[in-house]
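Researcher: Quick test of sequence recovery. Tokens follow.
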């Protein structure tokens, strides 16, 4: 949630009503963390659905290396729990930066689905 700003309640509720409590807590989150960050690097993705694929690739690599890793279904369940927050808060982060951020100390790097800079 680092860098995410509270949004109007109706905006958050339209994405997912369960995010309302998250939204209410973002003000305190700023006071606890964000105000201490003096420079930001934001990695911008065009489509949040690539997060599923990236996490799946990581888990598959872990399993192939003989380490425990989530199954494909567990990855889907895990990612779906936070992806709605990305859908709600990333557009504002991308367009405005973090709350209190200085545009002179903000670097936005856009990447494609293959994690390549654009």
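Model:
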């Amino acid at each position: 949630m680092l860098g995410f700003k509270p949004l109007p309640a109706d905006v958050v509720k339209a994405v997912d009503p369960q995010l309302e409590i998250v939204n209410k807590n973002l003000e305190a989150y700023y006071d606890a963390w964000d105000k201490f960050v003096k420079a930001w690097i934001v990695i911008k993705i065009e489509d949040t659905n690539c997060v599923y694929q990236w996490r799946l690739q990581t888990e598959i690599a872990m399993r192939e290396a003989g380490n425990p890793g989530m199954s494909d279904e567990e990855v889907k369940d895990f990612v779906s729990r936070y992806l709605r927050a990305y859908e709600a808060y990333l557009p504002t982060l991308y367009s405005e930066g973090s709350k209190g951020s200085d545009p002179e100390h903000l670097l936005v790097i856009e990447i494609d689905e293959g994690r390549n800079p654009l």
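The chain has four helices and two strands.
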